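Hey,
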Amino acid sequence: MTLFQETDDSEPSSSDAAERAEEIAEGTPLSAGDPITAAAAFSVVYSWYNFYVKGDEAAGIFVGLWAPTLLGAASYLQQKEIYTKLEEGLFFGR
C-alpha cells in the first residue's frame, strides 16, 4: 500500500487546461468590485502621469490616494454581496 496515488500517463495538455480556465471565467459572474478595481488601477497610472510627466506632485499624490479608497469600496461591496447570499441561504422560511 502506498501513500501516493498512481497517476495516469495521459495528463491533460496545457490547451485543455486553458480551455477549462476560459469556461470557468465565462461562467463567473461579474462582481461589483471588478469595474472599481479597474478604476483603481487607472487612478494609479493617472497619478504617475501627474507626478512624473506633468510635474504636478500635489495632484499626483492626491490622485494616488484614490486607489486605496476605491479598493476599500470594492471590498465593502463584495463583502456585502457575500453576506446577502449567506443570509438568503440560511433563511429557511416560516
